[in-house]
Amino acid sequence: MLRAMKRTFVLVSALLLTSLLPSSLAAGVAEVKKKGVLVLGTDPTFQPFEFKGTDGTIQGFDIDIAKAVAADLGVKLQIQAVGFGALMPQAVTSGRVDMAMSGITITPERAKVVSFSAPYYRSAQVFIVRAGNPGKFGWPADVKGKTIGVQANTTGQFAAEDSLKPKGATIKVYDDFAAGLADVRAGRIAALIGDAPTVSDLSRRLPGQFAQAGQALVAEDYGAVFKKGSDLAAAADKTLARLKASGEYQKLLDKWIVQK
């Protein structure tokens, strides 16, 4: 889940990779139907959107939407666990997966490399602190001199590099979001940037340990990701429209996201 120069390098590299791949590798509806499987890439560390249940299976809000897309295509869903740094965009542009869902934010920069579905969830990047906020952290007032954690290659990292570092914050990058949470709990960092639904989920699973502090850093929309130009994006849009019209989308929200 890079500093500006590194971020630019990753984007340019992905663009070059995409241009070098033969068009026959473009994963589309016909190819997916022919093989009978829709391969989904996801980083199953982002509860409640994708995570491993007690039985080891990957489940969550994104997973149920992906299952609906596969069902509408008349194929099976195959799930591949991929770390977020490798998932976006390399796993998609290389053809390793047909589709990626992992709380992936739609951005103009990413849209140069991959195709997105229509937005399916509105979220925000927020600051996660220890319950009670003993460090008295807040945004935008109390950033200077504080160490803020981010997950690698996420929009939270990009926003932190752009908005917090210039104000005197130290940015600590984690490959594993759970490691960042452990440092928040231990008081080794002032806050960890994460998606707003994560705070609600933590409050349910780990009551009295974490809380949200300060204002949201940035609002954002999630989208399903496909190889650039793939007609699978339009197929996903049809499924999303069907789910919303039938009321199934709201049922999924109630099941996974809405705090009870």
UniProtKB/TrEMBL annotation:
It comes from the Bacteria. Residues 37-259 form the Ionotropic glutamate receptor C-terminal domain. One of its GO terms (molecular function) is ligand-gated monoatomic ion channel activity. The keyword Aminoacyl-tRNA synthetase does not apply. GO terms for cellular component: cell envelope; membrane. Residues 37-260 form the Solute-binding protein family 3/N-terminal domain. Residues 1-26 form the signal peptide. Pfam families: SBP_bac_3. It is found in: Cell envelope. Gene3D superfamilies: Periplasmic binding protein-like II. PANTHER family: ARGININE-BINDING EXTRACELLULAR PROTEIN ARTP, MEMBRANE-BOUND LYTIC MUREIN TRANSGLYCOSYLASE F. Belongs to the bacterial solute-binding protein 3 family. This is Amino acid ABC transporter substrate-binding protein. It comes from Deinococcus irradiatisoli.
